[in-house]
Specification:
The protein is built from three helices and five strands; from the N terminus they run E-H-H-H-E-E-E-E. It is α+β, with helices and mostly antiparallel strands. Strands 1-3-4-5-2 form a five-stranded antiparallel beta sheet. A hairpin with a 3-residue loop joins strand 3 and strand 4. It is elongated, with a radius of gyration of 16 Å. The model has no long low-confidence stretch (mean pLDDT 97).
């Protein structure tokens, strides 16, 4: 596969479609099973509070992966992402209720680079707080 987006069709400031990702305690249990990360801060409210967290929190790598989906869906090919990095700024707190939490992710082309590549800067927010900082992906377009 190759990216569905042509380099010539993209300009600095091009916005990627905003996405929202629901996160429940069940989501965290499934992710723990898939990743092998069974740290109790991701499923045990009592333990999370004992270590100073407000409640159970989502796995950082889960949050990072959901943000990357905005880029891979836009590009049309996960292999088009050649670099990706974030800083974790705030945890995604996931209450034990019917709603859980929501991660809202948007992105914008911040720079056109050589080799048909662009840098996409992402914003990720949950409960009104920025949960990822310096979230950037370099994508090779067609």
């Amino acid at each position: 596969m190759a990216a569905k987006i042509a380099y010539e069709d993209v300009e600095v400031g091009t916005e990627l479609p905003m996405r929202t990702f629901p996160v429940t305690r069940a989501t965290l249990v499934r992710y723990a099973g898939a990743s092998g990360d069974f740290n109790p801060i991701h499923w045990n409210e009592k333990f999370a509070r004992e270590v100073g967290l407000p409640d159970v929190i989502a796995h950082g790598m889960f949050t990072m992966a959901e943000a990357a989906r905005v880029v891979t869906d836009w590009a049309g090919d996960p292999g088009a992402v050649v670099e990706y990095g974030v800083r974790f700024t705030k945890p995604v707190v996931v209450p034990d209720d019917d709603q859980g939490a929501v991660i809202e992710v948007g992105g914008k082309v911040a720079a056109k680079l050589d080799g048909n590549r662009v840098r996409v800067d992402l914003t990720a927010v949950s409960a009104g707080q920025k949960v990822l900082g310096m979230s950037r992906a370099v994508v090779r377009l067609s």
